[in-house]
Every structure is written in C-alpha cells, then in structure tokens.
Inverse folding.
C-alpha cells in the first residue's frame, strides 16, 4: 500500500479540483433558466440521457460504497442490492410508466392525488421528503468516506465539501443541467469502478486464490445475508423505483411515454455489470485487508495506485457522490415547491423560481446535521426504500384497483406504514422480519380493513339525500 507524499496528495487534489471546475462550468452553461427547465427539462430529454439518470439515482455513492461494504462483510451476494434495480426498471416500464406519464404530473404525490385528493397528496409528499432526506444522509456519509480516504481529512470536513459542490450543481442546474452533467459523471463513475476492480483482482491474483482460502459463504448466491433479506431487498428496490420522486421527474422529462419506457431499458443495461463489479471489489478488500473498517472496502484500493491514477479514480468517486446528492436533493426541492409552496402561496413564475433556488440551498446542507449519527449505510439505504415501497403499494392500488376509493383508507395506510416501518427498523427488525415486509404489507392491510368498515360520512350523505328527496313530496300532499 502506498503512502502518498504531500506532493502526491496535492496532485490528486488538483485533479479533483480541475474536474469540479470543468463540471461546474458545464452546469453553468447548461443551467435551468426557468421553472419548467428546472423541474422537468422542458420535456425534451432523450431516452438515453434519462436512462443514465435513472441508473445513477440507484447506483450512486451510497449504493457503490455500501454494496462494497456489505460484500466485505457478507459475500458476493451483496450484489443483489443493485441487481434489484436492474430488475425493477424494466418492470416499472411495463407496469406504471405510461399511466404516470399520462397524468401529466411531475410528482408521484400529484399522480396519486388524481384518485385520493389533496390530503393524500400532502401526506405522500411529506413521507417522500422524509425518506429522501435520509437517502442523502447516507450519500453524504459514503461520499465523505471516499474523499477522506485520499485527502486525509475528517468525515465531517469531507461531507461539507460534498454539500458545497453538489448543492451548486442542482441549485443552478436543475433537471436540465443535472441531466447532461450526470452523463459525464456516470462515465467517470463507470471508469473508476472498473479501474478499482482491475487493481483489486491484480492484487489478489484473480478469483481462484480467494475462492480457495475464503469461507464458502462469500461465493454462494445468498452469502451471509440470507434469502429473507435478499427477497426484501428485491421487493424494496423494485417498489421504491415505482414511486421515487426523481424517477417520476426523470421520466416526465422525456418527450412521450414511449421514450420514457425506453429509458427504463437503458437503465437496466447499465445497472447489471456495475452490480457484479462492486461486489467483487468488496470481497477482494476482505481477502487483502481482513481487519480494516468495512466502510473503506472500495476506496482502500486507491492507495495502491499511482498518484495520477488515484486522482482519476478519486474523481470518479467524487462524480458518483455529486450525482447521488444532486438528484435526490432536486427531488426533495421539487416536492416542496410543487406540493406546498405553489398551492399555498400562489407565486408568480419569477417568485417560484427564486424560492426554488433558495430552498435548494437549505435542502443541500440539511443532511450535514445528521451525518455523524448514521448507522450502517446499506441498511439505511434499504430502510429508505422500504418507506418508499409503502407509497408504491398505495399508488398501484390507486391505478389498478378502482374500487378502493377511500381517501381515509389511503391516508391511514400511508401514515401507518411510515410510522410502523420506522419503529420496526429502529427496533432492529424483531423476530427476524425485515422492515421491508412491514412496509409492503401494512398499507394493503389497512386499506382492506378500511374497505370493510362502513364509511359513516357516506352513510350520512345518503341519508341526507333521502330526506331532501322526501321533503318536497310531503310538502305537496
């Protein structure tokens, strides 16, 4: 392992700064100049660009660092955490893309509100913002781990660097700027992961020595994770894809529903290779550095590279960080503006655009408050997917089961699932039941129970109508 000299570190920092300067310039040139461009790219985004955006949303810094960390501890089966996204995007294209696109909404809450009304819309927005804020907390921690490894700064300092740069990207770029710069970031991310995989396998001598010397569970399909958790991962990842705000926003930026469907297939083809590569890196790290902290399973290999290559790979991880944070923060901002600020304050276009920029700054820095308190990254990642999964259950019922018409039931299901899943997660998944299953079952059970309970408000309305009809008849006798 190399110990970088001061000159080497300065070179690495210089490469990262040059990259940040380049992408900052690109963001400024491609910046959104109106609310339409900020929120949905004026519905002119090509399917390829949107597909890359979708992939980057689910394979950002948190999934990259977190999956390598899980593979270090649990084996190659950690790749299922990303394979779920590869499976989920085509299913999303088949089941929901056309229906959501045709609503003309840029938020999942707005689409579901077509069925259940304003109160349900507000509840979904609040729950989604809660989940996405936790997503960005995980992004900041995983991103800071990569930056601090090479730059030799503390995690909080690295997290602040992440906040400053990524906030500029999305606050000025919006959907239009983030989309095109994301393609550049994603190319760098792919390059970095493949280079790290090459160095990792070079140091281990390939897979054969690891297979011979490491415990068998590192190479089984379920590893130390277990089938129960893997199924929960698949359910949660697929379910969260169906309702995550940035995913809805991204497909809404295409020119038509057919392009939106093609974008989901592009995302599939980008997800699968990187899932396997990241898991392999984590296993290699365990083989070579068995006693190190698992959080550094992926960035540890940077220290085995030349300064120039280390600078390029560090830059690729930085790119992954900025993509993750920017897309999630953009989604939170969109929900806050579209579902709360606009309906209640009814601003002019100029006022709305100005408030969007101001709120972007707040949302960009808010996760820093929680960075030091975050638990194991991948567990946090899947908890946030569980919260979003509960929204998906309600959305699918809204679109495909029209006889569930109760706003009361939808609201109770959303709140019950959010609270129940959070409590279950904080209790450490009692009885071995993953919180993902709680998020999946709770909304459906509550909505079914509500369907079976007579709606007293409707009964009163029906009785009132009967009395009104009877009054003229009696008066005429």
């Amino acid at each position: 392992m190399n110990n970088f000299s001061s000159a080497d570190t300065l070179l690495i920092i210089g490469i990262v700064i040059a990259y940040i300067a380049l992408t900052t310039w690109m963001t400024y040139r491609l910046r959104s100049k109106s609310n339409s461009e900020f929120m949905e790219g004026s519905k002119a985004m090509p399917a390829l660009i949107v597909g890359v955006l979708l992939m980057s949303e689910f394979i950002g810094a948190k999934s990259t660092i977190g999956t390598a960390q899980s593979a270090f501890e649990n084996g190659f089966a950690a790749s299922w955490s990303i394979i779920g996204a590869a499976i989920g995007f085509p299913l999303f294209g088949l089941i929901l893309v056309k229906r959501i696109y045709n609503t003309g909404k840029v938020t999942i809450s707005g689409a579901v509100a077509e069925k259940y009304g304003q109160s349900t819309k507000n509840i979904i927005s609040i729950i989604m913002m809660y989940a996405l804020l936790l997503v960005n907390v995980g992004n900041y921690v995983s991103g800071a781990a990569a930056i601090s490894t090479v730059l030799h700064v503390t995690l909080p300092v690295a997290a602040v660097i992440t906040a400053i740069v990524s906030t500029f990207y999305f606050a000025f770029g919006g959907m239009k700027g983030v989309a095109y710069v994301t393609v550049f970031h994603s190319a760098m991310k792919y390059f970095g992961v493949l280079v790290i995989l090459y160095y990792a396998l070079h140091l281990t001598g390939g897979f054969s020595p690891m297979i011979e010397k490491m415990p068998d569970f590192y190479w089984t399909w379920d590893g130390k994770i277990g089938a129960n958790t893997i199924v929960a991962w698949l359910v949660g990842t697929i379910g969260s894809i169906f309702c995550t705000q940035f995913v809805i926003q991204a497909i809404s930026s295409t020119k038509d529903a057919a392009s939106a469907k093609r974008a989901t297939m592009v995302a599939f083809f980008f997800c699968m290779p990187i899932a396997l590569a990241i898991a392999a890196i984590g296993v290699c790290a365990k083989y070579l550095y068995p006693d190190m902290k698992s959080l550094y399973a992926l960035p540890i290999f940077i220290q085995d590279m030349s300064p120039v290559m280390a600078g390029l790979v560090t830059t690729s991880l930085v790119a992954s960080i900025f993509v993750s944070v920017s897309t999630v923060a953009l989604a939170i901002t969109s929900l806050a503006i579209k579902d709360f600020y606009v309906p209640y304050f009814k601003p002019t276009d100029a006022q709305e655009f100005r408030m969007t920029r101001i709120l972007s700054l707040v949302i960009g820095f808010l996760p820093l408050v929680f960075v030091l308190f975050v638990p194991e990254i991948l567990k946090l990642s899947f908890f946030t997917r569980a919260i979003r999964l509960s929204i998906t259950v309600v959305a699918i019922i809204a679109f495909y089961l029209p006889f569930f018409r109760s706003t009361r039931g939808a609201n109770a299901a959303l709140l019950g699932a959010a609270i129940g899943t959070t409590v279950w997660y904080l209790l450490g998944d009692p009885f071995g039941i993953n919180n993902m299953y709680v998020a999946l079952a709770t909304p459906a059970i509550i909505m079914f129970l509500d369907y079976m309970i007579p709606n007293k408000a409707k009964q009163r309305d029906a009785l009132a109508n009967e009395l009104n009809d009877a009054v003229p008849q009696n008066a005429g006798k």
Summary: The chain has one domain: 6-370. The chain has 19 helices and no strands. The CA atoms of residues 298 and 419 lie 34 Å apart. Confidence is low (pLDDT under 50) at residues 473-477.
